[in-house]
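Q: I have two molecules that I believe assemble together. Could you output structure tokens for the complex as a whole instead of separate predictions?
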Amino acid sequence: MGAGHASRLHRPGDTLVHRLPPQCKLVAVAGFALVVVATPREWFWAFGLYALLLALVAVLARVPAGFVLRRMVVEVPFVAFALAIPFIGTGERTTFMGLSLSVAGLWAAWNILAKATLGVAASVLLAATTEPRMMLLGAQRLRLPPLLVQIAMFMLRYLDVILDEMRRMRVARESRGFVARDVRHIPVIARSAGALFIRSYERGERVHLAMLSRGYTGSMPMIQDVSAVSRQWLAAGMLPGAALAVLLGSWGIT
Amino acid sequence: MHVPDGFFNAAVSLSAGVVAAAGVTVCLRGARRELDDRTAPMAGLVAAFVFAVQMLNFPVAAGTSGHLLGGALAAILVGPYTAVLCVAVVLLVQAFFFADGGLTALGVNITLMGVVAVLVAWGVFRLITRSVRGRGAVVAASFVAALLSVPASALAFTLLFWIGGTAPIEIGTVAAAMGGVHLLIGIGEGLITAVTVSTVLAVRPDLVYGARGLAAPLVLRGADGDVTVVPGAPAPAATPRGPGWFLPAGVAVAALLAGVVSFYASSSPDGLERVAQDKGFIGQAADHALGEQPLADYGDAGGLPVGVAGLIGVGATLVTGGGLFLAVRRRGGDAGSADEGREKASV
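A: Yes, here they are, computed for all two components at once.
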């Protein structure tokens, strides 16, 4: 339940990472996240190496560190939850700076913080280097149900329209001196939501009729060719491959 | 409640992914019935609406604000199948384009906020609107449905966390805290949902899926005084089927999840201390749930002492569980008549 998403993450560019086909990047990031989640939490330096890998990708994609860090704010609510676990965890306890903390809870908090941070950073890099529309085309090539992909595409197309509509309504509210301060103001906001629904639904119906009159038969034509050659799969596989090598390597050592 | 990576172990993440995929598949089929040929554009539009509505912050108590989950609202406005699809797409887009919610936790997120929340909301809503008819009942039912859907999905989160979470916690304490705090958020969710539904009902009653049976029949009065009553569209005939196997399937999947996955679960350690810090946790839980709660609010949740919050949480579980059970039983009872109606319609 993060806060709103006012700004998009995509950062146009023309680097090696940007040019990779979207399905390769999707598989690479998902594979990387899986490897990270599967890593035992005691291997501190493995997590360090994962972070190094991501930093390498960021350098390759010319995504500045500040950009990634700012976009990682979405993680904050769950960091709060993770920090609470040492206090409520059960089992053996230790004392640190006068606080009684659960040892298992501390491990759990570290586990969540490390893995969630790496996962969010990887997702931020994916979103920063891939155009939303291309990402959905990639997802479709990965056999995601076409209807689901279409719904997501329509959502992305409508999103700005609806957000603009909402912004206009907010401006109208605020220019009349409205500030949502307590529960009594909920009806005002809810009526805005109701009006927003009616406006968007009616607009959707109009758009749908316009689409039908232009020959829409239930599926969107594919314009871009997003097929990938094995060389590109290989390049994308470097990230999860290297992570897996780190994981297996540490397995051999311990 | 967007769960990031690393919160759940691999077994739970994968099982939840299977549940989510199954739920979405069922809904893809059902949504075609709810939206006819307009499935993709209209569902996309509702998804964008849910996304936008999630950005509406509303004040809950002094200094605290929450935002809508939107599952219950979508279910009542456009039907349960489309609602699950829309929430799933919203979560998908948030995970891929906004890095909100982990990729490996996508299954968990869709299961909790899509399947569980919509299932509970729609079950409660149908339960109430079946026994009481009328516009007021629809609004009241949307309030209760949205109110219960939030703590239900929070409790489902707790259950999953207990089964396959990566931290040792006592399920009772956390369930009470999560349930209690989310019941407070649920009140806000319920209020907004109810007022939104009543607004739409007032302007375009035909757009509210949950009130499709309420439209008054068309009455034609001729110049010579003859009155013809045109029966309304047979739309409601399709509704009973929806939740008919939606609910039992959901329950079965949940049972399967609990049964199979708990096999992997590590034995949860029995704590010696019942932890004096659960107060601190309540503050933190609210913080995570609302995102904007100042840390100064430590001692209690929105003015409710911990004990009361716990009681509310347990009560919510009972009511939700009982409601679901009743809903399933009612469906079983009148399934025959519903089938009859459909056969007639198809002939």
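A: One point stands out. Chain A touches chain B through 101 residues (CB under 8 Å).
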